[in-house]
Amino acid sequence: MSSDSAKPTTDSKPEEKPTTDSKPEEKPTTDSKPVVKKPEEKKVELPAFEKSISDKIVEKFGDKVEVAFVKKDRVGINVSRENVHDVAEFIRDGLNYDHVESVSGVDYPQDNEIAVVYHIGSYSDPSLARQLLVLSTRAQREENPIPGSDATRLPTLRDIFYSVEFHEREIFEMFGVYFEGHPDNRRLLLPEDWADIPPLRKDFAIKGR
Amino acid sequence: MTTELPTDIKSTSSEIQIDKPSSKWLPPGLALQKVDEKIMTLNVGPQHPGSGHMRLIVQIDGDYIVACDPDPGYVHRGEEKMAEYRNYITNIPHLERPVIHDSCNILYPYVLGVEELLGIEVPERAKYVRVIAAELNRCIYIMYWLAIYGIFLGHSTMFMWPTGDRELLIDLMEKMTGARVTHSHFIPGGVRNDLPANFEEVCLRQVNYFEKRIKEYAAVFYDNPILIARTQDTGVLSRQDAIRLGVTGSVLRASGIDYDVRKKEPYDVYDELDIQSIVMTEGDAYARSKIPWLDMMDSCNIIRQALQKMPKSGSVRVKLKPNPKGKGFDTVYKRVESGRGSLGCYIVSDGKPEPYRLKLSVPSFRNLIALPYLLKGEKLGNMPSVYWSLNYWPVEADR
Amino acid sequence: MLKDLLTPETANVFVGKLGDMLEKAIGKPLGYAINWGRIWSLWPVHIETACCSVEFGAASSPRYDVERFGIIEAFGSLRQCDLIVVQGTITRKMAPRLRLVYDQMPEPKYVIAMGACAITGGLYFDSYNVLPGIDGILPVDVYVPGCPPRPETLIQGCLLLQEKIKRMKARTIV
Ligand code: SF4
């Protein structure tokens, strides 16, 4: 389990970065001797296989990507919105991941950003069956959202992972993140006459709370 | 008011014009499309036994479906938003509501996730109790699903038999947890209560009888030539498409991909039990309807193994502090194999007693994407059999 | 004299009086007969709105077998139904459809609100997309509490509805 920062999320994003940046630096040291003594090193040791996946991505993209965490069976990658399309393409073609399990939006009003998190898995590669790659990117957040015509935009991953189709429609109505290039940005779950701001944003308060 | 996407009804309903290109931004069904004279648009649902709590907008040419646009959301209750206002314990009864007849399995990833956030280790006996409860629940879910599949195909016996036999297992669960369907039995740190006295015996007896019963379904349902004629080679999902669409559960295994979370990423004590995940390669509605049935027999097997291996005594829960909270900012994604497929729960915690964000990645929602593909080119009469073979529970998909 | 009285204007009065007398004489037994017919044909519309429909389905299972009372036979088109069992949560998307279904049903029609959600919103009292109870859109006859109600509770609710119909004035609803 990795704790990114001791402080709760009131930290702004620049504060989170140093702690996550420090991870890759300590990895090579632990990676060099993982086999010798297991029980003692368990606390600092990063899982080797997961580490190799994250290394491959870092190798390809350098400082465009940022490794958020490497846990057992989970690799977290943070990408800026300009590079998310390329990184996803590499994940599919270079790393054999083939479908998206879940797409979640997380609203961070204090950073003025909305994170969109893709959990990517693989059916076709048996060695990756346990693994999930957590690709997270962030879109700009607007104070007064006009879904679809403001700056809250991300490139769609539908042409890479087809399975995100309905997930991205859901994110669009729930967070107002417009996916550029998605052919079908319609409502999915909310009523047709929904006239409020997208409901899963943090500034949408449910009644009585 | 906007250029591309109207956000409120005022800008959309004021002028519904047929030829205006803007009408394509209307919600599904409200958009009046100019279509071919030969093509008819049909709204199936939400008031129709053939669609349940959702609407399918199908366009048919004669008897053949040319396009299908699912319109879910009739049971969207905002679970994820409300979870942000409730603490980790009060969320428990809430999160099982999307699938009340599979309530142990839908709680499972959440409970596992909270345990990882809190760093709790669960007692061995509790793990076994959980596995037994989860497998019983899987059977209860599949029996209900099978009953509705029967009634969808106009096979009333197949409604009566499963709903009747299902009560056996419901009795067991009632004995164990005190509730018929909404158990709220799993909690972070174990299960709520220990098993009642001589539960093992009763459970073994009932499960054996149950297995004997479901084997009889082959004669009345699965070997029935009418069923075979209606489901074989309808709605074929090829292996490549199954991977591309990211479907899960029985739909995936019917297309020839051996993927079962219980086997691939074992949680609790599933790694000590012998699980066969059943795989078929046809990918048609018949295979998709047969796999859950075979799954049930597998579940009976697992229950028997778990009853044997379970420690005979010991605690079933660790004591939690009131109002548990995670340590600082952390995220966790856990998944389990539910009755419908892999069910994930993504929790973002910021060190408060309430989750910062909670997302249920539900298999029904993931399987829904396959529906338009499977229905294209099918006969309208085959629509219910293809639709329900996707192992779809609308309440769960809408959350 | 009778001829003088029987102008076209007053004829209506006479016919009305006659009707009143007739009703006094046979209204009660007739109403009883009509109601008797109604209580044994309570067929619900097949509209499932949320998770309570699981227990609704279980009520027709062999163990509970609600059809032995001649009531909930989940069958048929809504034009032939006279009972609507609202099975749980009504969301804002479903509410207009529910009302539409209700409006299309022929008179007389009865409504059972099944589950805490249909009564007050239940667990979802503070959700942004759930109606706090259906009494705002439909006239409810019987409330069946529970989350979900056990099949026995549903059966009892239906029996209560039969009891209620027996005591209703038959003509006022027609
Ligand atoms: S009352 Fe309970 S079981 Fe019924 S619809 Fe509401 S939440 Fe579901």
Write structural notes for this entry.
The complex is a heterotrimer of chains A (209), B (399) and C (174). With 209 residues, chain A is an alpha/beta fold. Chain A has a domain at 48-180: NADH:ubiquinone oxidoreductase Nqo5 subunit (Beta Polymerase, domain 2). Helices cover 28% and strands 22% of the residues of chain A. In chain A, strand 6 (153-155), helix 5 and strand 7 (178-180) form a beta-alpha-beta unit. The longest helix of chain A has 20 residues, at 13-32. Chain B has 399 residues and is of the alpha+beta class. Chain B folds into two domains: 8-71, no CATH class; 79-398, Cytochrome-c3 Hydrogenase, chain B (Orthogonal Bundle). Chain B has a three-stranded antiparallel sheet with strand order 1-2-3. Chain B has a three-stranded antiparallel sheet with strand order 6-7-8. In chain B, strands 4-5 form a two-stranded antiparallel sheet. In chain B, helix 7 (199-215) packs antiparallel against helix 13 (285-309). The radius of gyration of chain B is 22 Å and the shape is globular. Chain C has helices spanning 2-5, 8-39, 53-59, 94-104, 116-120, 151-167, 170-173, and strands at residues 83-87, 110-114, 142-144. In chain C, helix 2 runs antiparallel to helix 6 and helix 3 packs across helix 6. The longest helix of chain C is centred in the N-terminal third of the chain and has 32 residues, at 8-39. Chain C has seven helices and three strands; from the N terminus they run H-H-H-E-H-E-H-E-H-H. Chain C has one domain: Rossmann fold. Chain C is mainly α. In chain C, strand 2 (110-114), helix 5 (116-120) and strand 3 form a beta-alpha-beta unit. Chains A and B meet through strand 3 and helix 5 of A and helix 2, helix 10, strand 6, strand 7 and strand 8 of B. Residues 50-52, 88-89, 115-117, 122-123, 147-148 of chain C line the site of iron/sulfur cluster.
